[in-house]
Amino acid sequence: MTDTKTSNAMWGGRFAAGPDAIMEAINASIDFDKRLAAQDIEASRAHAAMLAAQGIITDSDAAAIREGLLTVLSEIESGTFPFSRALEDIHMNVEARLKQLIGEPAGRLHTARSRNDQVATDFRLWVRGQCDAAIVGLGALMQALLGQAEAGKDLVMPGFTHLQTAQPVTWGHHMMAYVEMFARDRARFTDARARMNECPLGAAALAGTSFPIDRAATAEALGFDRPMANSLDAVSDRDFALEFLSSASLCATHLSRFAEELVIWSSAQFRFVILSDRFSTGSSIMPQKKNPDAAELIRAKVGRINGALVGLLTVMKGLPLAYSKDMQEDKEQVFDAADSLMLALAAMSGMVGDMKPNTPALRAAAGSGFSTATDLADWLVRALGLPFREAHHVTGALVKMAEDKGVDLPDLSLEEMRSVHPDIVAEVFDVLGVDNSVSSRASYGGTAPVQVEAQILRWKDMLK
Ligand code: ARG
Questions:
Q1: Rounded Cα–Cα distance for residues 352 and 141 (Å)
Q2: Ligand 1 midpoint to CA 116 (Å)
Q3: Is 174 tagged catalytic?
Q4: What separation in Å is there between the alpha carbon of 400 and the centre of ligand 1?
Q5: Which pTM was predicted?
Q6: Helices and strands of the chain, counted as H and E runs
């Protein structure tokens, strides 16, 4: 970091003295917005080409700018670029270096633009790239979940409500629930991307410009669908970053719920799943420990991602149009949230790809806790014609009897059952097994393997 104590080379015309050190410290964003370097240079190249095409600068100046910007980019990529805090931000750092490299033509690059539309453009490009990364990351996670679902489509396990055993379900059904959730997350990133894909460049400081620029050309060169239609809006909103963050928060919430299940499932009390060594750690004091640290950290990442959302919403509320320097506070939290989300997605994909369901433990747990009590009640309705409320009551009495005897429902004898309701016949035992229970729930979206298989096929097709 080089430092100059004279007034700013870019805007210091009306200043006699340089900034106080504290002013420089609060004002400079280069330490973090250097992450926008590639986007800044890409946007500057598009802008310079457009200025030349419109006859606003000469072709030879545009060529010098284009070459110079490539040199700047390679300096940044190779780590030799002389970042300066006195030059505040990435935009002025790049332009000042360009001036050192190519001289006078560098001063023509900023014609018909402002840092206000420049930063809005750079940041949009960056966030758009992160939407793409999230879409790819979610696709990989959905594939990993599909693999688990396919391998375990008829593997029975307990389904829970209130974390109490409710009814048997299948491993495949449980995995596919997350495929649905992550698919909605992916769709949210896709929607946000489409909405943010308009170009602010050319809005200039806030009001547009008197130069005959071609905003459609720069928008197209940067892969945007169109230029933004209102210059005040273009420089003053950060809703695109907020949409990214809210999509990220929801996605991180889903990741956190699944991570929590993996933490519970991998415990010695549950033993539902074996996480791979690659995604576990040991304890420095307890030799037997294999800790699900990756799952715990994924469970926690939602905290900083939600924090970023609330942080930026709070920065933006109450800001008058158009640009205010408050908006420089938009970046760090978005960077951190994006990094956290991509890491969490990658870790979850890796863990899901590696994990092994513990089939015997899942099967045993599926049949315990009177998990087929609803099947028994349904049978009383179907076979004996009892009203469901009465069937519920009879089943409750049978559960109580089994509980008192310390056995499961299928362990009661027919005589014991008949002591509760005399019309019960031996066929009742057919519905008390977990496989039967699961395969009977063949309503659309239900846990029966035929239904789960249909969903797996549908998603395999969609993810192709
Ligand atoms: N570093 C600033 C930001 O991130 C760039 C825009 C500054 N514009 C200005 N007029 N001071 O918001």
A1: 8
A2: 6
A3: no
A4: 70
A5: 0.93
A6: 18, 6
Exactly one of 60, 74, 267, 283 is catalytic; name it.
283
Q: Where does the pLDDT of residue 5 fall: very low under 50, low under 70, confident under 90, or very high at 90 and above?
A: low
- What residues contact 24, with CB distance under 8 A and at least 6 apart? 85, 86
**Cα 415 to Cα 197: distance, rounded to the nearest angstrom:** 71
Residue list, ligand 1 pocket, CB within 6 Å: 29, 33, 89, 115-116, 119, 323, 325, 327-328
Q: Whose alpha carbon is nearest atom 4 of ligand 1?
A: 328
Catalytic residue flag (residue 283): yes
With tokens 């016949």, the residue in question is 425
Q: How many CB atoms lie within 10 A of CB 208?
A: 17
pLDDT digits (tens, 9 = 90+) for 381-414: 999 999 999 999 999 999 999 999 999 999 999 9
Positive or negative, the CA dihedral 217, 222, 227, 232 is negative
Which tens digits make up the pLDDT trace of 247-257? 999 999 999 99
User: In this predicted model, what pLDDT tens digit does every residue of 207-216 receive, in sequence order?
Assistant: 999 999 999 9
| Ligand 1 midpoint to CA 327 (Å) | 8
3 state SS for 77-110: HHCCCCCEHHHCCHHHHHHHHHHHHHCHHHHHCC
DSSP-derived secondary structure letter, 2: B
